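hey so u asked for the seq, here:
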Amino acid sequence: MRRLNKKKALNFVRELDAFPKVPESYVETTASGGTVSLLAFTAMALLAFFEFFVYRDTWMKYEYEVDKDFTSKLRINIDITVAMRCQFVGADVLDLAETMVASDGLVYEPVVFDLSPQQRLWHRTLLLIQSRLREEHSLQDVLFKNVMKGSPTALPPREDDPNQPLNACRIHGHLYVNKVAGNFHITVGKAIPHPRGHAHLAALVSHETYNFSHRIDHLSFGEEIPGILNPLDGTEKVSADHNQMFQYFITIVPTKLQTYKVYADTHQYSVTERERVINHAAGSHGVSGIFMKYDISSLMVKVTEQHMPFWQFLVRLCGIIGGIFSTTGMLHNLVGFCVDVVCCRFKLGVYKPKSMSDFDGQMNSLTPLLSENAEQ
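ran it, structure tokens below
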């Protein structure tokens, strides 16, 4: 009898402990609880894995400001092939101040206009990439992040010895011009200085030899960066008439590119084009040739590659773990309640939470102890 009273007294003292105890039902192992725990840990592992890839990824931030640099020179990088002999064509630049820039930095190289099979495959691939860039503008960010690592955009050399005569002229190199609007053009005859501007010696060239079919393998402004594609790269035009004018209207935007691989001052540009046949009798006046009229924007774009901070990654990771824990707990309780309702375990006035049932059981176990103490 004493041993029973002692056991009941210990239970009573244990129940009067100031620190709450976890009910035994909370640590019971059930099939549903194990399944929910397994799903929760799997979801946490997958989301943490994907979040790590988000942390490793970078994005490009674009900022705009006024371009205050008006004293430096603008570099023009050129690689154009014209379907005329080199002695019949000339290239130069005339800016808005009527200043003619000497084309000493350009090289005139006799070549065959038709591409070899390997070059033609490269050209088709370049045109396909250009079409995708026009449709998906976000691909430009991919090019910015992979500069200095992409394949060169220049036309690869021929892999065969052509049997055709060298009927074309490849004009390539670079020029330094004033940072004002100007006109780069390729037309008949070599350029000569003139007190009122400039002129080309075209009188000795027959009109029957005019053929301004051309291919722009590369045209860029500023520092030349491998892996960057420009809007006119890969452009190919075939002249339908001897007296034909091709015009490109270019707007240049100064750009500062800062990534984890390179820091460069370059230029982006947009272009619209037009072509027409020169016919003075029909009122279409002008000079046959290729004319690229460029203008420089007063705004400068700063493109910076950014990365998620490590502390933000940790915060997001903690949010994922805590959110899955709380969500799976609520879903498990909700499913359990719905199962009780469906199985008719929930009855009005009969169903009690487990905590209330445990409390009633504890009070019932304490009642005999209190009565025995009262009798003694």
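The first strand starts at residue 58 and ends at 66. The first helix runs from residue 2 to 15.
lmk if thats what u needed
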